[in-house]
């Protein structure tokens, strides 16, 4: 009599799913959620909001640049559209930002489809050049059409209406409400990247990034999937722009459409690690504190890290107050020369060497 062996059920978990990774992520989000209970200084929460904003921006660019391999240096266009549409709907039409941001995301997606439908049919650096040109054209148009956009004067937000969430009224006063909103949006951006990375859509993106001709020979519609990647990226970037406008309460063309905004978004991924979920987070952790220290070194005095008469504060204010772009450039050169996979690649190599046992080292390497 033949005994039938039990057949294992197929795993329903997505490919690449890690229980440990999920638990670490949930624990990190929970720790960040209770962090404001132990912090009394507004500057610390201010840094947290900027950190979450940078994470959203980096995760947004990572979809099209990291997974699909289409490098955009004009994401300020989507960021600015998100900021302006959200702000104008609130100031002019009295539409709450949590509704207006959906219109901002739709406008950015339409803009991305116009740009992508033209440039993605071509090979070469046309998309990079077009992305820079479009951002600059929109910035100049915003300055020119003063009746609609108020030109260089920009928009100054009076107040944000009270939000009623499940019977609870939320007043957007101080840093704390923006901290929690920023944390929630950052979690959404990370979740979108996770879904993209572990879905068939993400595999199509990565196939296009590795070899476009091979991907095309397998039946992947290059133009269509590049546009899909850019649309997702544009929507998330517009979400970040709307959040930025509500947090800062002032926008003008140079602050949201400037080339430095696009460069900073790209650097978040290059320095942290392109094509990974954790890379843009690491990039934000590196760049945001560095940028804030260079712009406002007295913040370290406010949180008690340095004494009021610190020579470091005086040195930064005198010589490095406007040098954050110079420091960014030096960082990029160092990363390209010594860590092409970003800070995440350095951490992974260090962890591999640390975990390697002496008997695992090949004899030839040991003799060398």
Automatic annotation (TrEMBL):
> Pfam family example for this protein?
BPD_transp_2
Species source reads Anaeromyxobacter dehalogenans (strain 2CP-C)
Provide the Gene Ontology terms for cellular component.
plasma membrane
The Swiss-Prot or TrEMBL record annotates one GO molecular function as:
branched-chain amino acid transmembrane transporter activity
In terms of superkingdom, the source organism counts as Bacteria
Q: Which UniProt keywords apply?
A: Cell membrane, Membrane, Transmembrane, Transmembrane helix
| Membrane topology value | Multi-pass membrane protein
InterPro entries from the UniProt entry: ABC_transp_permease (IPR001851), LivM-like (IPR043428)
Q: Where in the cell is it found?
A: Cell membrane
Which residue spans traverse the membrane?
A: 16-36, 43-61, 73-92, 99-120, 178-196, 228-251, 263-288, 325-347
The protein in question is named: Amino acid/amide ABC transporter membrane protein 2, HAAT family
């Amino acid at each position: 009599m033949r005994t039938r062996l039990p057949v294992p059920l197929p795993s329903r978990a997505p490919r690449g799913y890690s229980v440990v990774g999920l638990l670490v992520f949930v624990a990190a989000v929970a720790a960040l959620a209770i962090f404001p209970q132990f912090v009394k200084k507004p500057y610390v929460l201010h840094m947290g909001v900027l950190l979450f904003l940078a994470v959203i921006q980096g995760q947004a660019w990572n979809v099209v640049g990291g997974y699909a391999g289409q490098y955009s240096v004009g994401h300020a266009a989507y960021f600015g559209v998100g900021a302006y549409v959200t702000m104008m709907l609130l100031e002019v039409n009295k539409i709450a930002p949590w509704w207006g941001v959906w219109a901002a995301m739709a406008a950015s997606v339409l803009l991305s489809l116009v740009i992508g439908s033209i440039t993605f049919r071509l090979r070469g650096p046309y998309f990079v050049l077009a992305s820079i040109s479009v951002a600059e054209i929109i910035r100049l148009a915003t300055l020119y059409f003063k009746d609609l956009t108020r030109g260089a004067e920009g928009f100054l937000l009076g107040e944000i209406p009270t939000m009623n969430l499940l019977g609870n009224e939320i007043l957007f006063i101080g840093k704390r409400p923006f901290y929690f909103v920023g944390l929630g949006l950052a979690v959404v951006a990370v979740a979108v990247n996770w879904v993209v990375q572990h879905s068939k859509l993400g595999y199509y993106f990565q196939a296009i990034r590795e070899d476009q001709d091979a991907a095309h020979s397998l039946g992947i519609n290059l133009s269509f999937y590049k546009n899909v990647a850019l649309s997702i990226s544009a929507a998330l970037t517009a979400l970040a722009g709307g959040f930025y406008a509500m947090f800062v309460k002032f926008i003008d063309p140079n602050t949201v459409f400037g080339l430095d905004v696009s460069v900073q978004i790209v650097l978040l991924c290059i320095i942290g690690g392109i094509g990974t979920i954790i890379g843009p987070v690491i990039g934000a952790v590196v760049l945001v504190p560095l940028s804030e220290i260079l712009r406002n070194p007295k913040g370290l005095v406010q949180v008690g890290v340095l004494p009021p008469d610190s020579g470091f504060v005086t040195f930064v204010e005198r010589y490095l107050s406007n040098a954050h772009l110079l420091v960014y450039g030096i960082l990029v050169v160092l990363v390209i020369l010594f860590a092409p996979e970003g800070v995440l690649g350095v951490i992974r190599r260090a962890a591999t060497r640390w975990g390697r046992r002496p008997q695992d080292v090949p004899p030839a390497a040991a003799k060398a």
